[in-house]
Amino acid sequence: MLLLLLSYLGGALTIVSPCILPVLPFVFARSSEPFRRSGLPLLAGMALTFAAVATLAAVGGGWVVQANQYGRWLAMALMAFFGVTLLLPHLAEKLTAPLVALGSRLSNAAQQPAVDGKQGSISASFLLGIATGLLWAPCAGPILGLVLTGAALNGASVGTTFLLLAYAAGAATSLAVALLIGGKVFTAMKRSLGAGEWIRRGLGLAMLAGVAAIALGLDTGLLTKVSNSGTTSLEQSLLDKFKPKPAPAAVPASAMAASNAMMAAAAVSAPASLPVEGQLPSLDGAVQWLNSPPLTAASLKGKVVLVDFWTYSCINCLRSLPYVKAWAAKYHDQGLVVIGVHAPEFAFERDIGNVRKAVKDLGINYPVAIDNDYSIWRAFGNEYWPAHYFIDAKGQIRGHHFGEGEYAQSEKIIQQLLAEAGNKNVAGGVVSGMPDATGVEQASNNADVGSPETYLGTDRASNFASPGGEKKDRTQQYSAPARLALNQWALEGSWHASAENVALTQAPGRIVYRFHARDVHLVLGPGKDGKPVRFKVTLDGAAPHTSHGSDVQADGSGTVTGQRLYQLLRLDGPVADHTFSIEFLDPGVQAYAFTFG
User: Fold this and answer.
1) Residue 263 in 3-state DSSP?
2) Are 311 and 395 within 8 A, CB to CB?
3) Is 415 helix (H, G, I), strand (E, B) or coil?
4) Regions of the chain short of the pLDDT cut 50
5) What is the phi/psi pair of residue 383, to 5°?
């Protein structure tokens, strides 16, 4: 909403730029004519010109970025150019002089009937609107460029369309005011041009600073974390409002993972008849697509489709991911399309830069729809992470599976749907075990898991043992009891507890948990400054040695460098009750949730 408002104001404020002065005399000359015959066609012409240019720029910029990775640098170069034109208006005037000349000729032609004293026609007013749009280009260009290069850097989406529409509405509002009020506005705007120029130059400096930040990788580091940390509580409340919470059955479903993973050698068959559960819903709600241009239900007809709802810090999603990747590779040439629908649980998972990095780090090559608004989630009526939906070549949903496990049965469904689609050479067998899975992607030791997923933020916290309890939205000095009961946890040090996480305000600080499981994972992120946070893990008061996790050294040392799930312990020996402790040596760390395996 804030970006929409800023785009609207940006469009409205372009009228205070000096380069708008050549347009206004022509506009005011028609202010005496009926608004419906003169003003509305003029605004329509201006909007048409704006929409055409903006659409070509957004689509072209998006194509460049999708074509190759150097498109990102081209987009940054364009963004820097727009920043320079804001700082140096005379440069913008020289570069756009041919456009201004064309607009002036069209304006003179369109305005001629009114100058001769004849009643202006609707078509003449419309032509004047087109000319006005061209004349306005030098003013709109730099600010509009910020929106368009942002679309090129982050991907064109429905959100981009709304930003462009908001900008156009702001520009049209300014022009409508000019038409209705007339010369009074013209005189007032002349007095505001000095302030307008300083605003333009300030925007230019901000844009150049943004280019520098993106070039240094700070767009997914410092700037991202500053933005997320300031709006986390608000974003999480919106997520909770518009997204159904996963039902309790979603996590226990993982209890079947270990036994089902061993079924590869056995003959497993899909149901003789797969019922039709509905039609593949629209995929239009994604705010962006990774690894692919946007896909639609219509374009997928004739293909067998697997839709995987996931989020990158979800341990259950990560443990099922090796199978999804294996199916995508095994059946790609036989007509299977795998689509990952990334629906965030935490606010930081809404950041496209974070998701893009996770997709790359996890080796995901198939299309990923970023469902930040939960449009696809709601269209499916989904309530779980992970959730797999199997769609046949006719676009019909023929099966589903929630949670981990039953991989052999799921693969048999894929094989059956491929055979129904006419493929006579469907690969046999099923993916057995996951020898290539490492770290958090390895299967859980479910038989010995005696500790539940535990959230640390005040909205969903449980089993908190520090005296006095958690204090929401307050910085508090906490201490841990001498002994913890099984599945209790505590804080030590100065922490600020918010709805979805706890953040360390002064180092050192500790989190202690009494658990029963083989693996200990914790979702962590750096603080507002984006600086890495060092930590030290202990198991029953000693270094973990051979029981260290994939994100920890044998001596217990590690570093929080990004917002994701960290594997801290993998016990090398019998599972029993143990006390886990993580001490953070630097301030700012944000801790979200424990998961076990």
Assistant:
1) helix
2) no
3) helix
4) 19, 61-72, 107, 110-111, 113-120, 137-138, 141-142, 152-156, 193, 217-267, 435
5) -140, 10
Phi, psi (rounded to 5 degrees) for 67: -65, -40
> 591 near 498, Cβ under 8 Å?
no
Q: Give one DSSP letter per residue of 273-339, joined into a string.
A: SPPP-EE----TT-SEEESSS---TTTTTTSEEEEEEE-TT-HHHHHHHHHHHHHHHHHGGGTEEEE
Residue 596, token pair as written in the block? 């076990």
Q: Percentage helix, strand, coil, to 5, in the chain?
A: 50, 20, 30
Identify the pLDDT of residue 478: 97
The Cα 82–Cα 78 span in angstroms is: 6
Gap between the Cα atoms of 364 and 291, Å rounded: 9
Q: Measure the CA–CA gap between 568 and 503, rounded to whole angstroms.
A: 18
Cis status of the peptide bond prior to 386, with omega within 30 of 0: yes
Q: Are 304 and 418 in contact (CB under 8 A)?
A: yes
pLDDT for residue 70: 45
Residue partners of 501: CB distance under 8 A and separation at least 6: 232, 346, 456, 457, 525, 590, 591, 592
Question: How far is the C-alpha of 31 from the C-alpha of 128, rounded, in Å?
Answer: 13
Rg from Cα positions in the chain:
29
Neighbours of 503 (CB within 10 A): 22
User: How far lies 72's CA from each of 121, 289, 344, 566, in Å?
Assistant: 46, 16, 25, 30
Contact in structure between 376 and 341 (CB atoms under 8 Å): yes
CB within 8 Å of 34: residues ≥ 6 apart: none
Q: Looking at the whole model, is its pTM more than 0.90?
A: no
Rounded (10°) CA dihedral 290, 296, 299, 304: 80
Residue with tokens 């991911």: 321
**pLDDT at position 166, please?**
75
Q: Which helix (H) or strand (E) holds 388?
A: strand 387-391
Output the pLDDT for position 218: 46
The reported pLDDT for the residue numbered 233 is 43
Distance CA 406, CA 258 (A): 9
Closest to 551 measured CA to CA, from 570, 538, 532: 570
Identify whether the C-beta of residue 157 lies closer than 8 Å to the C-beta of residue 288: yes
Element (H, E) at 233: helix 222-242
The Cα-based distances of 364 to 270, 293, 322, 329, 432 in angstroms read 26, 15, 10, 10, 19
Phi, psi of 574 (to 5 degrees): -60, 145
Give the model's pLDDT for residue 358.
Answer: 95
Please give the pLDDT value at position 173. Answer: 77
Alpha-carbon span 100 to 82, nearest angstrom: 18
One-letter amino acid at 530 equals G
Cβ contact 564:550 at 8 Å = no
Determine the pLDDT at residue 78. 57
Q: What is residue 232's predicted lDDT score, i.e. its pLDDT?
A: 39
